[in-house]
What does this fold into?
Amino acid sequence: MIFADDQFKWFFWLAPILMVVSIFTIFGLFGGYIRKVLIPKHRGRRVE
It folds into this structure.
Protein backbone atom coordinates (compact mmCIF):
# COMPACT_ATOMS: atom_id res chain seq x y z
CA MET A 1 0.00 0.00 0.00
CA ILE A 2 1.40 3.39 -0.94
CA PHE A 3 0.29 5.15 2.28
CA ALA A 4 2.41 2.81 4.37
CA ASP A 5 5.65 4.24 2.91
CA ASP A 6 7.86 6.25 5.22
CA GLN A 7 7.65 9.30 2.99
CA PHE A 8 3.88 9.65 3.60
CA LYS A 9 3.85 9.18 7.40
CA TRP A 10 4.01 12.95 8.03
CA PHE A 11 0.53 13.35 6.57
CA PHE A 12 -1.14 11.29 9.29
CA TRP A 13 -0.30 13.78 12.06
CA LEU A 14 -0.48 16.91 9.90
CA ALA A 15 -3.93 16.28 8.38
CA PRO A 16 -5.96 16.57 11.64
CA ILE A 17 -4.12 19.76 12.59
CA LEU A 18 -4.81 21.35 9.19
CA MET A 19 -8.46 20.29 9.37
CA VAL A 20 -8.99 21.82 12.82
CA VAL A 21 -7.24 25.05 11.82
CA SER A 22 -9.32 25.41 8.66
CA ILE A 23 -12.58 24.74 10.54
CA PHE A 24 -11.71 27.40 13.14
CA THR A 25 -10.79 29.83 10.35
CA ILE A 26 -14.10 29.33 8.55
CA PHE A 27 -16.14 29.70 11.75
CA GLY A 28 -14.07 32.72 12.78
CA LEU A 29 -14.71 34.48 9.50
CA PHE A 30 -18.41 33.66 9.66
CA GLY A 31 -18.65 34.82 13.28
CA GLY A 32 -16.79 38.05 12.53
CA TYR A 33 -19.13 38.80 9.64
CA ILE A 34 -22.17 38.26 11.85
CA ARG A 35 -20.71 40.40 14.63
CA LYS A 36 -19.45 43.26 12.47
CA VAL A 37 -22.08 43.41 9.69
CA LEU A 38 -25.32 41.60 10.42
CA ILE A 39 -25.91 42.60 14.06
CA PRO A 40 -25.32 46.36 13.51
CA LYS A 41 -27.41 46.24 10.32
CA HIS A 42 -30.42 44.78 12.15
CA ARG A 43 -30.06 47.24 15.01
CA GLY A 44 -30.37 50.13 12.58
CA ARG A 45 -26.78 51.34 12.68
CA ARG A 46 -24.83 52.27 9.59
CA VAL A 47 -22.31 49.64 8.49
CA GLU A 48 -19.02 50.91 7.09
Notes: Helices lie at 10-42. The chain has one domain: 9-42. Residues 9-42 form one domain. Residues 33 and 39 are 9 Å apart (CA to CA).
